[in-house]
Amino acid sequence: MKTNATQPTGMTAFTIVWIGQVLSLLGTAVGQYGLTLWAFDASGGQATPLTLIGFFFIAPMIAFAPVVGVLVDRANRKLMMMLSDLAAAVNTLIILILYLSGHLQVWHLYITAFIGGTFQGFQWPAYSAAISTMLDKKHYTRANAMLETAGSASGILAPVIAGALIGPLGMMIRNTFDPAFVANLGSKPGMLGLLIIDLLSASFAISSLLFVHIPQPERTETGEQARGNFLHEAAFGFKYIFKQPSLLGLQIVFLIGNFFSNIGFAIYAPMILARTNSNELVFSSVQSAAAIGGVVGGLAIGAWGGFKRRVHGVLIGWALSGAGMVAAGLSQALPGWLVAGFFTSMLVPLINGSNQAIWQAKVPPDIQGRVFASRRLIAWLISPLSQLIAGPLADRAFEPAMQKGGALAPIFGWAAGVGSGAGMGLQFALAGFLALLAGLGGYFFSVIRNAEDLLPDHDVAPAAAAPEPVAAD
Q1: What are phi and psi of 467, to 5 degrees?
Q2: At the N or C end, where does the chain have fewer CB atoms within 10 A?
Q3: Cα–Cα distance measured from residue 448 to residue 442, given in angstroms and rounded to the nearest whole number
Q4: Cα 256 from Cα 244, distance rounded (Å)
Q5: Residue 363 sits in which domain range?
Q6: Where are the beta strands (DSSP E) in 415-454?
Q7: Are the C-beta atoms of 331 and 340 separated by less than 8 Å?
Q8: Hey, CA dihedral for 131, 439, 382, 289, is it positive or negative?
Q9: Is residue 468 part of a domain?
């Protein structure tokens, strides 16, 4: 792809791309809000269908990670980023057509989630690797915090916009279109408007990329060693990480933390809806509070820059966010969910921004596509399992056990309550406690707590691809 010498570069270019992402993510979140409500109603209030949608989204991101990493490093990274955004738009169009025809079913969302997850797999390694070539490393933590803030900012406005529009849009559609057509749209015809917003928003992300220059990385000695046939390059990311005990240790913390937190967050939406009798206002308020927390956390990290030793941001952040999950699960009313959601989300930019900055500083840019894709696979390796078991665990074990007369109600009822949603609340709290332990556990291993000392920055020793010495505990 040819570049224009007048195209913005550096932080200016990154800011333009970031604005496009904010607008795109806002539209996507509006559409997802409507689909969550539709799927919950269509499934009769069951948690399992919603968790399966999450499973089919994550599974291809993990399964295809080695292939994605090679393609990101071989191809133009701007093109890879645009491909991901374009695929998201096509996916939404498929859902929209099915919805308009009256044929949309919950299992269709499993298929579209799989397609979306496949192409979304390109976005994160491509965007992460692009930061390393667009910006000086002193801006890494701030840039990553801005990307985290983009998602959170969309979460603030999306529930408000979607909650405010879905009713009036539904009324307008009922008054405008033929009753037979409206009947095909189900109980919430306003979702049609939300999906259109989602579809249009993808153009913002694609357009922002057209106007900026994203440099390709220069070849390093490590990058030359990584070159070879497709299979060799696909395996290189894993080999690189496994030769670096500190990087591998960080990803094991994420692997364990993600497994337990996903068991909780997979049933977060049905937990709130079950406890409130599907109150859309409460649900949107909780989502907005969490999103505000994410924005506040992102802005704080952008201004502060995070801990000087970034590993503290990772491990302390995981521990505190797990504590927030415990509080959210045990809360039984809106005020508790608002505070806990705000606090937990506020820590996400600290965790992810700190971790990203470590990897971007240590890994040579020309191999970051492969290494980051492999890194994601390690961190999310067993997350699909948590998505698969979270719903059945809630529907068949925790929920029945926390009803009046249930096996766990006499033991935990004083803390989590009894009745609809109480079992999911207890499951959410236990998952948060285990995630807390995963964060604190990282301090027991010197290769993790001393990761920044054991690994040289890539621009200090660009040829270094050998494993760092393993410090003994």
Answers
A1: -65, 145
A2: C
A3: 6
A4: 19
A5: 10-208+224-454
A6: none
A7: yes
A8: negative
A9: no
| Alpha carbon 404 to its chain's center | 36
CB atoms within 10 A of CB 100: 14
Q: Which of these, 29, 28, 16, lies nearest to 269 by C-alpha position?
A: 29
**Residue 470 falls within a domain, yes or no?**
no
* Distance separating alpha carbons of residues 435 and 444, to the nearest angstrom: 15
Q: Distance between CA atoms of 103 and 123, rounded to whole angstroms?
A: 30
CATH of residue 15's domain is: 1.20.1250.20
- Is residue 460 assigned to a domain? no
- Confidence category of residue 330, pLDDT binned at 50, 70, 90: very high
pLDDT digits (tens, 9 = 90+) for 294-311: 888 888 887 787 888 999
Instruction: Give 462's DSSP letter.
Output: T
pLDDT tens for residues 186-209?
767 777 888 888 888 888 888 888
The answer to whether residues 370 and 70 touch, using CB atoms and an 8 Å cutoff, is: yes
Q: How far apart are CA 110 and CA 362, in angstroms?
A: 37
Residue range 238-265: mean pLDDT, rounded: 94
Q: What is the DSSP letter of 27?
A: H
Per-chain mean pLDDT for the chain: 84
Q: How far apart are CA 30 and CA 26, in angstroms?
A: 6
Please state whether the predicted TM-score (pTM) of the whole model is above 0.85: no
CA atoms 230, 231, 232, 236: torsion sign: positive
SS3 breakdown of the chain: % helix, strand, coil, rounded to 5? 80, 0, 20
Structure tokens given for 349: 């930019």
Who contacts 407 (Cβ-Cβ below 8 Å, separation ≥6)?
Answer: 401
Total domains in the chain come to 1
Average pLDDT over residues 204-217: 83
Q: Is 152 within 8 Å of 298 (Cβ atoms)? A: yes
Q: Which residues make Cβ contacts (< 8 Å) with residue 448, sequence separation at least 6?
A: 246, 249, 250, 253, 311, 315, 442
C-alpha closest to that of 202 among 154, 132, 268, 138: 154
What is the residue whose two structure tokens read 């039984």? 332
Q: What is the DSSP string of 210-221?
A: HTS--PPPPP-H
In-domain check, residue 27: yes
| Crossing angle of helices 191-210 and 140-176, rounded to 10° | 140
Q: What angle do CA 325, 428, 44 make, to 5 degrees?
A: 130
